[in-house]
Automatic annotation (TrEMBL):
Alphabetical keyword list: Acetylation, Cholesterol metabolism, Cytoplasm, HDL, Lipid metabolism, Lipid transport, Nucleus, Phosphoprotein, Repeat, RNA-binding, Steroid metabolism, Sterol metabolism, Transport
Domain of life: Eukaryota
GO molecular function, one term: mRNA binding
GO biological process, one term: cholesterol metabolic process
Subcellular location: Cytoplasm; Nucleus
InterPro entries found in the cross-reference section: KH_dom, KH_dom_type_1, KH_dom_type_1_sf, KH_Vigilin_N
Name of this chain's protein: Vigilin
Record's function text: Appears to play a role in cell sterol metabolism. It may function to protect cells from over-accumulation of cholesterol.
Cellular component, GO, one term: high-density lipoprotein particle
Source species of the chain: Pygocentrus nattereri
Gene3D superfamilies, sorted: K Homology domain, type 1
Length: 1051
């Protein structure tokens, strides 16, 4: 037989906390292995009687239950919400099921019965299954509704604490239960859900109500027992009573008996109490009346609120009436109602901005209720008599002060002008308010009132009133007129950057001109202002539009694109002159446009005049020259070289030769008159040369420049044409005198190299970062500058270029050397170092918050200040670098700060750690304010400090004392709140002290120790953990649930 070690409940409870020290030493008290782990019961071999009753397995072990449950719900066909048989497993019904599974964590499987009903199997934990059931009923099943009526006082028992009972009931019955609110007189509870769920919910609610009726019966019986001494005459036949009827009959008899007893012994008195004081006698929810009844046994009857009677009736025993009457008068007179006369328009000034003025009074007298009634010239005060008197005197003083220095006025203005008085975004009214220091109330549109109220300083009120009346009068005289102006003229009227419309507005300053948005495509222009000014402005603009219509005639003139610049002229002189003289608008196409059309806009006659002038300019620019056609090719030159040079030299004229072989001699020249004439002369001169003189050939040899920038060639007339390289020979053709001049010009273009001496240590500065310095000089002087390699250590820099550029380049290079030498000298002066010894504890103060102080010193004295590193040996040395006089000034500034810090003292105070957070404030705002105010430094202990209450204050002696006093005052103020909060929290903490104390008393666990275990003897071996016989498995593993409620799809 195999055995399994099982810990019983008794042994577990006994040893759960570990063995106590005295048990460890006494082995006789240890349980045996068989006591702690009883063996499994053997299967009965005979049919005689049951096995031994004392077996631990048959009496102690309870069967294990799975936490996963499965329930099946059936939805009849008539109650199904989705009845489309063709979409079973698809559509909205499938989406709802998947949503329920995701929301509740339960697994759903749906199937359809023969009667077309829906069967739903839900698997999962109990809570998930119940939630899924509720969702299924509400979303897959049609809903019905019903009502159940129970006494109103029983509704709270259906709801339960925090609504838990109601939630449980809804989950259990899968229904939605709606209980009327406490202020609703109805006693009907509405239930919605399935028919089955409705019946269950009604049954449960009626059971709860019946239970409360029984509890009421018990209370009546107890009352009967308490009143037995007074109810000797009461006779109840219990034999004829059954259930609730007996209890009700008993309660009625008891009530009659009590009433009879009280009637014989009670006395009634009536007193007069002011109607306004009745509520103080009643108290909140009638508590005061109940307290008087409990203490004196006297009932106090108060007339209903809708009654005008002030008579209060007291009923009770004669010897208790005096005490009860005293309490009634005490309660009635403990509170009083008073009123203060104050004009209603002053109420908001008494209240103050956001209730600030009123808050000061209510904070001092929290029991006093202050009521402002709109439209009434009084303020009602209610509360304890003494407090009311004090508040009344304060408010009367405020009213007297306000009346003496404030006034108001009311003016009548037509509501249609109100928005104009307010202005765009409140601009007008805000200006009047700020200028005259008054408050102006303009009624909203829904009030349809024409009264505007002005309140404030008397003089300001009168000035604001006068200004508002003037504005209103001006608006009453205003007129709005719409002009129809074609939208195409709007931009012309407005002008460039609004220049023209500004002129119109300056001419008619009282008229507001509004143009429509261009996107609206509207032709309506609105004018608003005084009638006469609007009429004048209208006539002026109509005249302007008429002129624009007359001047809108347009003419297009085709002009060669290359002549447009000639039409414009130098600096726009030509086009400007034409525009001014003809009074037209001339638009030329953009430079990147292919259009040749120039558009002229204006009066018809003016447009024609401008067109003729532009065509005349073009005509002046065209000239024909007769040159024999046989010379055309020689005049054009190779690839048009000669003719291009003439066009460029003559200001960009255009020369057109006829087609080759056409036999036409006419050559056309277009361009400015002067340049055309110049080009004509050059062409004719060149043609004469070609006809009269043969060409003179001249050869010139120029050797190439080497890579180092030095020229090793000469310009000479070679004796032997075959000797030089072909690439070094330049051939010049033309007249002899011109060829000689060209040779001299070419000689001037040959580069020359000179040497400039520059100290080697300055070379890298001349080159600059990534060669930027030397490139700049080469570009500026149009030369090549060669700096020797660093390993040569040479002072010679070579400069190569044209002779005319070399002198200027040399001067620039020497000037740069002088600048660099001056910079070196300045750098040496700026490198002066000064060291100052300062105690390291002052370093943070010298640096300042976020480096503010040290940055100011560095900037002010133009020095660099270096503090020692953490691992530096000289922690008290501060190094200052800069000009000598600046470094000395910075040292003096630091020394002044140190001297001031040495005068400061530090004092430690005990400030309760519970108020540290409030003193520091949000993001340290509170403590920074204190430090700025008292010019001190306050340090709070870090978390884990030995004394968490120790706070250090550093500063000048007198300021430290003031700061400490302020901190202690804050501590006293905040501690009151801390103590109050802690006292509240004491009631909210769960009571677990007993368990905690027992856990502390319990020693550390020593493990579970048993005697006579199998492994302690040599006769038995330890059980094999891998053996299925020694450790059999409990059931088969559960297969994973399918993801879809419909099972696998069928294809």
């Amino acid at each position: 037989m195999s055995s399994v070690a099982v810990l019983t409940q008794e042994s577990f409870n006994e040893h759960r906390s570990g063995l106590l020290p005295e048990q460890v030493g006494d082995e006789d008290n240890l349980p045996t292995y068989k006591d702690a782990f009883p063996p499994l019961p053997e299967k009965a071999m005979s049919s005689e009687g049951p096995q031994e009753a004392g077996n631990a397995w048959t009496s102690k072990i309870r069967p294990l239950r799975s936490s996963i449950i499965t329930q099946v719900f059936h939805v009849p066909l008539e109650e199904r919400k989705y009845k489309d048989m063709n979409q079973f497993g698809e559509g909205d019904q499938a989406k709802v099921c998947v949503d329920i599974m995701q929301k509740t964590g339960a697994h759903l499987e749906l199937s359809m019965a023969k009667d077309q009903g829906l069967s739903i199997m839900v698997s999962g934990k109990l809570d998930a299954v119940m939630k899924a059931r509720k969702e299924i009923v509400s979303r897959l099943q049609t809903q019905a509704s019903a009502t159940v009526a129970i006494p109103k006082e029983h509704h709270r028992f259906v709801i339960g604490k925090n609504g838990e009972k109601l939630q449980e009931l809804e989950l259990k019955t899968a229904t939605k239960i709606q209980i009327p609110r406490p202020d609703d007189p109805s006693n009907h509870i509405k239930i919605s859900g399935t028919k089955e769920g409705l019946e269950k919910a009604k049954h449960e609610i009626l059971l709860i109500s019946a239970e409360q009726v029984e509890n009421c019966a018990v209370a009546l019986v107890q009352m009967f027992i308490n009143w037995v001494p007074y109810l000797r005459t009461v006779k109840v036949n219990a034999n004829n009573c059954d259930g609730h009827l007996c209890v009700i009959a008993l309660g009625v008899d008891v009530s009659h008996a009590i009433f009879s007893f009280q009637k014989r012994n009670a006395t009634t008195i009536a007193v007069e109490v002011k109607k306004s004081q009745h509520k103080y006698v009643i108290g909140p929810k009638g508590n005061t009346l109940q307290e008087i009844l409990d203490r004196t046994g006297v009932s106090v009857e108060i007339p209903p609120p809708d009654s005008s009677s002030e008579t209060v009736i007291l009923r009770g025993e004669p010897d208790r009436l005096g005490q009860a009457l005293t309490e009634v008068y005490a309660k009635a007179n403990s509170y009083t109602v008073s009123s203060v006369s104050a004009p209603s328009w002053l109420h908001r000034f008494i209240i103050g901005k956001k209730g600030q003025n009123l808050a000061k009074i209510t904070q001092q007298m929290p029991k006093v209720h202050i009521e402002f009634t709109e439209g009434e010239d009084k303020i009602t005060l209610e509360g304890p008599t003494k407090d009311v008197q004090m508040v009344q005197s304060q408010i009367e003083a405020i009213v007297t002060d306000l009346v003496s220095r404030m006034d108001y006025a009311e003016i009548s203005v037509d509501p249609k002008f109100h928005r104009h008085l307010i202005g765009k975004g409140g601009a007008n009214i805000n200006r009047i308010k700020d200028q005259h220091k008054v408050s102006v109330r303009i009624p909203p549109d829904n009030e349809k009132s024409n009264l505007i109220r002005i309140e404030g300083d008397p003089q300001g009120v009168q000035e604001a009133k006068k200004e508002l009346l003037e504005l209103a009068s001006r608006m009453e005289n205003e007129r709005t007129k719409d002009m129809i102006i074609e939208q195409r003229f709007h931009r012309a009227i407005i002008g460039q950057k609004g220049e023209k419309i500004k002129e119109i507005r300056d001419k008619f300053p009282e008229v507001i001109i509004n143009f429509p948005d261009p996107a609206q495509k509207s032709d309506i222009v609105q004018l608003r202002g005084p009638r006469t000014e609007v009429e004048k402005c209208t006539k002026f603009m109509q005249k302007m539009v008429a002129e624009m219509v007359e001047n809108s005639h347009s003419v297009s003139v085709p002009i060669f694109k290359q002549f447009h610049k000639n039409i414009i002229g130098k600096g726009g002189a030509n086009i400007k002159k034409i525009r001014e003289e003809t009074n037209t608008k001339i638009d030329l196409p953009a430079e990147n446009s292919n259009s040749e059309m120039i558009v002229i806009t204006g009066k018809k006659a003016n447009c024609e005049a401008a067109r003729n002038r532009i065509l005349a300019i073009q005509k002046e620019l065209v000239m024909e020259v007769s040159i024999p056609s046989k010379l055309h090719n020689s005049l054009i030159g190779s690839k048009g070289r000669f003719v291009r040079s003439i066009m460029e030299e003559c200001g960009g004229v255009h020369i057109h030769f006829p087609t080759e072989g056409s036999g036409i001699d006419a050559v056309t020249i277009r361009g400015p008159a002067e340049e055309v004439e110049k080009a004509k002369k050059q062409l004719l001169s060149l043609a004469e040369e070609k006809v009269d003189a043969p060409p003179f050939n001249f050869e010139l040899m120029i050797t190439q420049v080497q890579e180092n920038g030095e020229s090793n060639g000469e310009i000479k007339e070679p004796a032997d044409p075959a000797a030089p390289k072909k690439c070094d020979v330049i051939v010049l053709s033309g007249r002899k005198e011109r060829c000689e001049a060209a040779v001299e010009a070419l000689k001037a273009l040959v580069p020359v190299t000179i040497e400039v001496e520059v100290p080697f240590e300055l070379h890298r500065y001349i080159i600059g970062q990534k060669g930027s310095g030397i490139r700049k000089m080469m570009d500026e002087f149009e030369v090549n500058i060669q700096v020797p390699a660093p390993e040569l250590q040479s002072d010679i820099i070579s400069v190569t270029g044209l002779a005319t550029h070399l002198d200027r380049a040399k001067e620039g290079l020497l000037e740069r050397v002088k600048e660099l030498q001056a910079e070196q000298e300045d750098r040496a002066l700026r490198s002066f170092k000064l060291t100052i010894t300062v105690d390291p504890k002052y370093h943070p103060k010298i640096i300042g918050r976020k480096g503010a102080i040290i940055t100011q010193i560095r900037t002010e004295h133009d020095v660099n200040i270096q503090f020692p590193e953490k691992n530096d040996e000289n922690q008290d040395q501060i190094t200052i670098t800069g000009y000598e006089q600046n470094a000395v000034a910075a040292r003096d500034a630091i020394q002044a700060i140190v001297d001031e810090l040495e005068e400061m003292i530090s004092e430690d105070i005990n400030l309760d750690s519970r108020v540290h957070a409030r003193v520091i404030g949000a993001r340290g705002k509170g403590i920074r304010k204190i430090m700025d105010e008292f010019k001190v430094d306050v340090r709070f202990p870090q978390s884990g400090a030995a004394d968490p209450n120790l706070v250090t204050v550093t500063g000048l002696p007198e300021m430290v004392d003031e700061a400490i006093d302020h901190l202690l005052n804050l501590e006293e103020e905040y501690m009151a709140d801390v103590v109050e909060n802690e006292s509240k929290m004491a009631y909210m903490k769960p009571s677990g002290t007993a368990a905690a104390s027992s856990e502390e008393a319990r020693g550390p666990s020593k493990g579970f120790v048993v005697r006579e275990a199998p492994w302690t003897t040599s006769s038995e071996k330890a059980p094999d953990m891998s053996s299925s016989e020694d450790f059999p498995s409990f059931g088969a593993p559960v297969a994973a649930a399918r993801a879809s409620p419909w099972g696998p799809k069928r294809f």
